[in-house]
Structures are given as structure tokens and as C-alpha cells.
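We were asked to recover a plausible sequence for a given structure. The inputs and outputs are reproduced exactly as logged, with field labels preserved.

PROBLEM: sequence recovery
POSITIONS: 208
GIVEN STRUCTURE:
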């Protein structure tokens, strides 16, 4: 009450609650709170807020999760326009916007668009510091897109790079390493290399 309805802290509270609902898969509630937080940021800063494009892109992901694809595309378009207009070409938040878009296009089975945006994000993340977890995340996602297109050789190369980063940054016992071993196992099974698949599934199990 003391801050008034249009205040940075109020926006932050809405966005935090929206994030929490998203983590709990309460997507409709997440959309409601993220929209409110974004609206306050727009009233305060117009389209000049650095963080606004990332939350607009997150809103796009949430719309995709509930099957509202027209709304998802509108949010992604808005986020991309804001980020490309107001942030530098190598700004980390622009990379995050691209990564959300890559995830979305992968989820709706548009691999060309998905890989395009994931590579844009990868380029930015590498420029902000080679060997980051975000870089590894993008390499893993690109690898998965390549597996879906039966481009196994390059997929395994990207998985290998991603795994080396995860291991160097976080060690063997974490969910990202486990998930990546699972993906490598899936790729081997897709090629009917069942023994190799089993080995990687066992590695995934031992990494959690």
C-alpha cells in the first residue's frame, strides 16, 4: 500500500510470484502475475527496461505451455523487438530471449527456427564468457535438435562439449549432467546402439 500500485518493488513481487507459479506448473496463475509485473514495468520505463524483454519472452513460454500459440508468438515478437532495439547485440538478456524462443520452436517441432535461435543465444553466451553453463545449455539443446534430424555426428560433438563444461563447472553429481547423459543414451538408442545407450543411462542414474 505504501509504495502504490506502480512501483519497481511491486513489479518485482508480481514477477517473483509468477516465477514460483511457473516452477509449480501453475501456468495460468504464472501468466496472470507475469503480465501484471510486465505491465508495471512498461508504465514505469516504457520499453526501456533491460529486464522486461526476458519476462516478455518467459510469458511467451508460458502461453506455449497452455497451448495459446498466437499469444506466445506475440509475446516472443514483442520481446525480440524490445531486446534488439534497446539492448546491445551481445547483451546477455538478448541471449536469454533467443534461448526462450529456441525452446519454444523446438517444443512445437520447428527445428530450423529452434536451431537458429539457439545458435544466436549460443553466440551471445560465448561472447559474455566462454565455458559458461548457459553455453552448455545451448549446446545440449542444439544437439537434441540435431538428433531429431538424424544428424547424430554433430549432435554427439555438441553433447560432448556441453558435458565437458558441466563437469568442469559443477562436477558429476547434478541434474544437468544426468539429463545430458540421458540425452546421449537416447541418441544411441535411436541408432539401435543399445549397449552404448545402456552405458549412458547408467551414467545418468549415477549422476543424480
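RECOVERED SEQUENCE:
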Amino acid at each position: 500500500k505504501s509504495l502504490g500500485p506502480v512501483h519497481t518493488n511491486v513489479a518485482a513481487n508480481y514477477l517473483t510470484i509468477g516465477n514460483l507459479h511457473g516452477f509449480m506448473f501453475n501456468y495460468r496463475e504464472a501468466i496472470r502475475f507475469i503480465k501484471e509485473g510486465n505491465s508495471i514495468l512498461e508504465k514505469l520505463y516504457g520499453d526501456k527496461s533491460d529486464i522486461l524483454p526476458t519476462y516478455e519472452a518467459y510469458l511467451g513460454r508460458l502461453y506455449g505451455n497452455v497451448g495459446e500459440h498466437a499469444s506466445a508468438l506475440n509475446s516472443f515478437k514483442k520481446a525480440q523487438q524490445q531486446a534488439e532495439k534497446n539492448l546491445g547485440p551481445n547483451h546477455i538478456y538478448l541471449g536469454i530471449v533467443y534461448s526462450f524462443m529456441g525452446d519454444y520452436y523446438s517444443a512445437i517441432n520447428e527445428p530450423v527456427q529452434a536451431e537458429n535461435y539457439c545458435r544466436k543465444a549460443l553466440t551471445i553466451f560465448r561472447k559474455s564468457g566462454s565455458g559458461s553453463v548457459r553455453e552448455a545449455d545451448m549446446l545440449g539443446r542444439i544437439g537434441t535438435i540435431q538428433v531429431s534430424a538424424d544428424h547424430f555426428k554433430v549432435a554427439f560433438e555438441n553433447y560432448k562439449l556441453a558435458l565437458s563444461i558441466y563437469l568442469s563447472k559443477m562436477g558429476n553429481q547434478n541434474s544437468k549432467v544426468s539429463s545430458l547423459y540421458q540425452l546421449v543414451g537416447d541418441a544411441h538408442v535411436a541408432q539401435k546402439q543399445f549397449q552404448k545407450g545402456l552405458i549412458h543411462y547408467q551414467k545418468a542414474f549415477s549422476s543424480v
